[in-house]
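FAQ: What does the model actually see?

It sees only this:
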Amino acid sequence: MPEIGYDVPEPETECDDDNCPFCGTLSPRGTVLEGRVASDKMDKTVVIEREHDVKVPKYDRYMRRRSRTPAHNPPCIDAEEGDTVRIAECRPLSKTKHFVVIEVLEDGE
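And it is asked to produce this:
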């Protein structure tokens, strides 16, 4: 398997997905994010949800916001709903998909 440029372990299984950073030709680069898989109902796509706090100056308090990012889920990684994952930026794979899952950090069982 080729080196993808990030310090992540390679998956145990191999796949024939052309958009896999480990088994295919997709090269991840740029931003690396961590989040929780909110949905895995699409084919080879997961939705990653990240929560962050935003300061509201009028009330001098913080408000919790969340952002949802679609990411490509290669068959050799196979992240499921509830897992904590690391995603990396890549070339646009569809209208909204610009990230790929490169590592499952924690199972969500």
